[in-house]
Write the structure tokens for this entry.
Amino acid sequence: MENYDKLLNDLAPKKFSKLGVIWTSFLILVIIIGVIAYIDQLIKGQVVTNMRDYALWGIYISNFVFFVATSFVGSVAVAILRLSDKKWRTPIVRIAEIITLASIAMAGITIMIDMARPDRLLNLFVHARLQSPITWDVIIIPTFLAVSFLLLYFPLLPDLAILKKYYEKTSPTASKWYGKLSLNWTGSKTQKKIQTKSIKIVALLILPVGLVLQTIDAWLFSTTYRIGWDSTNFAPYFISGAFVAGVGALITVIFVVRKFRHLENYITELHFDKLGKLLTLACLIYLYFNINEYALPVFTAKKGELTHLDTLFTGHYAPLFWFVTIGGLLIPIIVLLFKKGRKPLPMFFIGLTVVIASWWKRYVIVTPTLLHPFLPIQGVPESWHHYFPSLHEWLITFATLAAALLIITVLVRFLPVIPIQRTAEEQDKLETEKNTK
Amino acid sequence: MDKNKTDSRRKFLDKGLKLGLITAIGGIGLSKLATKLTAQTDQNSGDKMELMTTDGTIIQVDSSEVMEMEHTPKHDNSAAIREGMPNRKFVMVVDLAKCKNALKCQVSCNKNHYITGDNAWLKVYKMQETNDTAPYWMPTTCQHCDKPACVTVCPVDATFKRRDGLVLIDNTRCIGCRFCMAACPYSTRVFNWSEPNQGEITLALDMGEEGQHISSPEHAGMPSIKGTVDKCDFCPHSIQNGELPHCVTACPNGVFYFGDKYEDTVTNGDETFRLSKLLKDKAGYRLMEGLGTEPSVYYLPPVDRLVDFEDGLEQYNEFQSVEKPE
């Protein structure tokens, strides 16, 4: 019982520290600035961006692809680890689910920011045409959002009931809300049966839905004739890239949450070790597809394709290309091969680098291709030959990233980031096993 | 046999009854009409007018009977616009041997479509395949592909393909996702990044004279709309008036031929050719045939040139295709 109280005290949501308040206010400030920039974009049109007729997509789209990729962590961490019944997953699944929900929600918003006529959003439903990959996106993103919400919510029910009880005396309002959200969870046998079954269904669903989401995201590009996009390799390439981005984000967030919520007893070095191995696996698979995508074409590249590869390998985009390839792929693989590299702190830096590289990786996928059309770029202002995001684009993009972090922060603040009920059960099991021995 | 007889009798009765009924109704109608007519003849002017009926006979009518018919109001023809002109298939042939980058086509296109942005819909590219091959000027319009990549990816059917071969844009429906621009291998599509300032059109709209400039996919740029895509429309507004597209008539060198594939004829205004023969004789080709987009624009290779390539360099401006007011 003593154990249980300590567990509850450790895992129950805690009020923000001073740092937490500053962090949250900072995020809100960034979001407000972004909203102002977006309103300005609405009024003046997308002329405030640096996109033009050749670079017709920019960081809004690459940022969207990044969010979609990060949301894949839900499918990986939850479904794969759950279906393969890896016991070490317990303290990290909820954080993975939270990241997924935040990412996919922001992906949906980001793609709307790129739409020049958001006032005609309804046309996507009224005049929908099923052959357009955008319509597939319109179908899959809300589906994935719903499934990932349920995957977060169903396992939360017992914990919410526990929190209702926990706050009964100290904070009646909080208790009331947790009670409402717990949907009258009593922990009865029938309830447990329904819950277990529901979780199983949703966990099974999120894997195919996640794969379809990543695939459609890749098809947005590979259904065009453009050099660098017109690749049959694109869907698995995107899926493996999402695997890397998702696990990278998970490691980074877990490190921060662990540090500031003092969860060292629950998220141990063992977990980082396991996650490090998972990230290595992800990076190796991604490396394989990168070789397919960039190295192999060198042998048979047509003229246009060769120009494209040249700008990546040695041309204008070479610094970025090599940063995302070496920093975001090769170095993680090498560092994580060593046991010392899989300790929490080095893992945090690796995770952070992987996330940043993942973001720029999408930029390198979207932009260079558009600046190498089939016919030469002529008859347009000199500035249209290049693309680098404008201030508006940066402010709005930072706001979407801040909004994703804010969603994560708020959910971490009000939800038990580590499943209480499950952890307690597992500890009990350990105790009884010890006692019987 | 007996049965047949009764049956035919029954049929006769039935028909007779129906006929009677119709006559009765017709009679009532006629008498009503007659009363109206007599009422009007009361104020008969006495002037007779000679008119010709549709079958050609001349009749006399009292002039007071003649009334001006109200013009049939333009019915909602959006369905017809999406359908296209029946039994037509428009094509264009561009003779590269004649083009010397005079740019009159571009100027005329810009003027007639009120293009004021930074990217013209009609471009004249300075082309040179390799260092060893001769340079040439290549005008491009929208290729009006029979398998248009842009139409495939449009999520809202804002850009569409018609049976007369045209690929048009309904810019009142476009959501501005720019997927069509990414899909088009000919980089022909142009986006309105800001509120377009189209001179007289914008002025007329500001004055509330929308009626005179009804936005229609058949006359792109009338007006252009912020946050939507524009491109060459093959000028169906000219075709309907029996005229050639603006670029064709503007070209001083007769580079552009326009016509109908079903009629197998193309003309640049001066000369008319059999399309199939012209393409065969002069080895006509289409841009990026390998992609399978099946364009409606054919090119005749720049052989036996009538003009010097260098002549065009004077006009060439790598960074401008729409003239800006000083």
